[in-house]
Amino acid sequence: MSQINSPPQFGSFKPKVVVTRHLAPSVEARLSELFDVSLNTVDEPMPREALLEALATCDVLVPTVTDRIDAEMIESAGANLRLIANFGAGTEHIDLSAAANRKIIVTNTPGVFTDDTADLAMAGIIGVPRRIREGVELIRSGGWTGWAPTGLLGCKIGGKVLGIIGMGRIGQAVAHRARAFGMEIAYTGRKPLSEAMESMLSARFVEDVDQLMAEADILTLHCPLTEETRGLIDARRIALLKPGSSIVNTARGEIIDQEALIGALQSGHLAGAGLDVYPDEPAVDPRLISHPNVMTLPHIGSATVEGREASGEKVVANIQFWVNGHRPPDQVLTALVGS
């Protein structure tokens, strides 16, 4: 049986760990206690040259979504690099094929941001139909003249169809919350949920994305970014949405064709959007910022103290399991000797 691509000495081995961003103090303290760690105290994304230097010298790299670890970088990494312990659930910023070729284990931190991201998605699901951003701007500009029977009329969400693309942990958590608001839950994904789960969430499976788009009053995205989902929500599909509907995206910006989204917002086909992610982060298109009913948030879906600490604890656990010669619990990519 093949063995895990483990460190040279179990137990006594203290790997050199490079952390690319500033993490929670409790997490950094634990990393420093257990490992020979290099921390990023500036908390700015490491430039490519610094990442290359880190990859050349460390045993373990702890990157985040802001770090693009491409094939060229992995191929040029030092012989000691055996584990990439990602901080966060998404791994699309890491070339997994290149890591597999180098027999480098990749781990992530799934599950810890489920409730945090679902809560933020609900802020968009509620806030866009109720025109929350417009109301805040009206107060701040001094333009509010008082209550009026027809002032800032929005739409209730009870009874509306919430279309969910991606019914994993976060999608299910959103469905659970939306059900309490009286929404009808329709979803699509790789496969249907179990009958018991569908019954608990009062959710129905729609096999075709186009059909889901046509039925949804509000569309929310909770699928990973893959080659199949990149640009999934394009101009043709946006046109299938009902006039006056809205889109919420807390997944990845590249899932939506941004030009098509902006065009539908400007034409009025879409009433608004709730966005926490963008294709060119940290750049946000000015046309989105200026639209009166687009909630533009700075990628804060996971930004809770509890979530970030839990993610860091998973990073520590993944590294420690590897140091002890065991398979890390959150292994995304297996690097087996002789495989």
Number of helices: 13
The rounded distance between the terminal residues' Cα atoms is 10 Å
Mean pLDDT: 94
Low-confidence stretches: 335-339
What's the story with the biggest beta sheet? 7 strands, parallel
From the spread of the alpha carbons, the general shape counts as elongated
Placed side by side, the strands forming the largest sheet appear as: 8-7-6-9-10-11-12
The gist of it:
The strands form 2 sheets. Strands 8-7-6-9-10-11-12 form a 7-stranded parallel beta sheet, sandwiched between helices. Strands 2-1-3-4-5-13 form a 6-stranded mixed beta sheet, with helices on both faces. Helices cover 36% and strands 15% of the residues. The protein has 339 residues and is of the alpha/beta class.
Describe this structure in words.
By secondary structure, the chain is of the alpha/beta class. Helices cover about 35% and strands about 15% of the residues. The protein is built from 13 helices and 13 strands. The protein has helices spanning about 25-35, 50-55, 70-75, 95-100, 115-125, 130-140, 170-180, 195-200, 210-215, 235-240, 260-265, 285-290, 305-325; strands at about 15-20, 35-40, 60, 85, 105, 160-165, 185-190, 205, 220, 245-250, 270-275, 295, 330-335. A seven-stranded parallel sheet has the order 8-7-6-9-10-11-12, with helices on both faces. The protein has a six-stranded mixed sheet with strand order 2-1-3-4-5-13, with helices on both faces.
